[in-house]
Structure formats: C-alpha cells, structure tokens
Specification:
mainly beta; Lipocalin; eight-stranded mixed beta sheet; eight-stranded antiparallel β-barrel; 20 strands; about 10% helix
Length: about 375
C-alpha cells in the first residue's frame, strides 16, 4: 500500500485536489508495475550499487538536532508529490542477486524544472546521501524531456531498484528539488522500506543429515603432517530452489581428536585453540555466488578463539534426490587468529619443531 503523508495549509479545495492526484498516482503506478517490458536490469546500475561498496556523503545527510530529515532539504516547500510502489518492498532472487523491484513516480501541480534529485540511505547514524543526480539523468530515467515537469503529468522510473548480494532490510528516501516559474526551489520526498525477505518466499531451512570434518597440520621440515577430525556442533543453512542463499556453521572445538592423546590435549590447550574458553568456531556466510549448478564461492567471516576474519571458500555442490551434498577444502592461517605456537614467523631456532602457519580443513555436509 502507498504510505504518503502530505501536510498542506491550503483551502479544502486544494486538499481535495491533492487527494485526487494521489489516487491517480496509485492507479498509474499499479499499471506501470505490471508492465512486462520494464527497463532491462543492466540499465539500473546507477541506483543499485551495494551499500557497502559506495562512499556515503555524511555531510550532506546530517540533520539538525531533534529533526528527522537532512539539512539539505530543510525549509524547502514540499510541493512535489513523490511515491513508490510497492512500499514496503520485498526482494526477488535473480542470478545470485537480491533485487527490490519498485516504481518511483512524481507529479506536480504546476510546471517546474528539475534541478537535482537522488536518494538518501538511513543508517544507525541517520540519513546519508547515497547518490545525487542531474536533470539529464532525470530526463533519461523518467522519460521527461529536459527534466521539465509539466503540470499534472505523471513521471515514473519503473526500475529504480536496489540490489545486494545480501538479503538485508534497509530504509531509503528519494528526494527531488525543482524550480518553479518564479524561481522558488521546491522539494518532494519519498521514503521507501526495502525488507529483508523475499516475495512469495520459498526459502527453507535445511537440516544436516550427516557431517564430516577433517583437519591437517604440517611441520616446516620434510613431509611431516598430522591429521585428525572435529565435529559439527550445529548448522543453519537456508536454501531456495535448490541453491544455498546463506549459512552459519558452528564447529565444536572441544571435539578435536587425534590418535595421539597427548597431542590432542595440546591442541585443546592455550598454545592452540584454548577450547575451555573458546568452545566453538563459527563460519557465517555473507554471500554465496554460484558459478554454475555445481560450484559456488561462499564469502563470509570465520571466528576462532574470539577473533573474526573475512574468509572465502569454494563449494562443490551435488544433489541426489532430496539430499544436497556440500564439499570444500580450505587452508587457514592460524596466526591471524592469535595461534602462534612454534611459528617461524614469530620464533627463531625452532629446528624440526617448527609448525607451518597454515592448516587445512576438509568438510562434507549432507543436507536434507
């Protein structure tokens, strides 16, 4: 549903005009949203950059104490009607990207010239300017020649979409600044809620039917290596249409094993994983990018001994009936997690007692 709030200090006649205009916008944007021939996705890159990949303009987004809207828009009469549909807006998943599809429309009660428009994104610190665009951009994306708004005409960008590799919610606000025939600057604002959920979601949580994890550590001299096992403590894997969209994997560090019990206990103590203080390691995905049906790259964070670092691993994926099998091997530098015992990077004269910084993990998960 549209949620547009307009406060006018005009006559009842003007108020009725604005109500009628809003109804027209609703009907026309509903029709526009149903059009099959919307602008191709590749044409919407200007609005759909990942929030984390752009530099927000903090100065332009600041607000006066106790005020909601940015100083940039302060004191301009709100005489441009702007709205989004649908709002709130949920995402669709296409080619490993989440896309919040909506229309953005504006209308004016008199002729005006667009001076500037763009969008703010709302963060825990308030509104910050995400993008500022020109009259030429408005002409291109709103099909409005010269950015000149004609009285009563509806101008719609039917693909002013946000895209992200993460299914996360976010509030944004489009703004418009235009000049009337008397040179007055006027504004319009249109907040939109993009929700961290999918349209007609078919996401399911997969259960782990079976898991195996093996570790291998190496000596610096010769071909010396040691291998053991470790158990999965828990996992939460979300899938849609047979594809993994996000996962959290928890490893039980207390379960680390080796045939030599003395070595096993050493791995559990403070020299290595200090499992009494840090009983679990956690891998959490931020993105899962599929190269094809059988291969994907999972990027996220790995936490060991209370230290969290970014990590990327390749997944091999196969399906057998209702079972999805994930396999991966990864080499991990233990020293970045504060595990420096007998590392040549930190200690000298270790001889054959030196241990390589990197150890390997190989795992297989069967999901159902």
């Amino acid at each position: 549903m549209h949620r547009s709030i307009f406060v006018f200090q005009h006559s009842k006649e003007n108020i009725m005009k604005h109500i009628i205009i809003n109804l027209v916008i609703l009907l026309l944007t509903l029709a526009s949203c149903q059009q099959k021939n919307a602008r191709p996705l590749e044409n919407t890159v200007r609005e759909t950059k990942n929030f984390s990949a752009i530099e927000l303009n903090y100065e332009a987004g600041k607000s006066a104490a106790g005020r909601l809207f940015p100083d940039k828009l302060r004191d301009l009469p709100n005489e441009i009607i702007a709205t989004h549909y649908p709002n709130p807006c949920s995402a669709t998943l296409e080619d490993s990207m989440y896309i919040w599809k909506h229309n953005t429309s504006i209308q004016t009660k008199e002729d005006m010239q667009i001076v500037e428009y763009g969008s703010f994104v709302f963060t825990e610190k308030g509104w910050y300017l995400r993008v500022s665009m020109s009259p030429a951009d408005f002409e291109k994306y709103y099909n409005c020649k010269g950015g000149l708004l004609k009285k009563g005409m509806l101008y719609t960008d039917d693909a002013s979409w946000r895209r992200d590799k993460r299914l996360i919610a976010g509030d944004a606000m489009w703004y418009y600044i235009a000049k009337d025939k008397n040179g007055r600057l006027l504004k319009g604002t249109a907040p939109i809620e993009t929700e961290g959920k999918l349209v007609n979601s078919t996401v399911k949580t997969a259960a782990v039917a079976k898991a195996s994890i093996a570790w291998t550590g190496y000596g610096e001299i010769g071909n010396y290596s040691l291998t053991g096992n470790i158990k999965l403590k828990g996992a939460e894997v979300s899938m849609e249409a047979g594809r993994i969209i996000q996962a959290t994997i928890i490893i039980d560090m207390k379960s680390i094993t080796h045939d030599q019990k003395q070595l096993e206990e050493h791995l559990k103590d403070k020299d290595f994983f200090d499992v009494s203080r840090f009983p679990v390691a956690i891998f959490k995905t931020e993105t899962v990018d599929y190269k094809n049906a059988g291969n994907a790259i999972a990027k996220g964070s790995l936490t060991i001994k209370g230290v969290t670092k970014p990590i990327s691993l390749s997944l091999q994926i196969s399906n057998a009936g209702d079972i999805t099998v994930l396999k991966s091997e990864i080499s991990i530098d233990r020293t970045v997690f504060g595990i420096k015992y007998n590392s040549k990077s930190f200690f000298g004269n270790l001889g054959d007692q030196a241990i390589k910084n990197n150890f390997d993990l190989a795992f297989e998960l069967k999901l159902m």
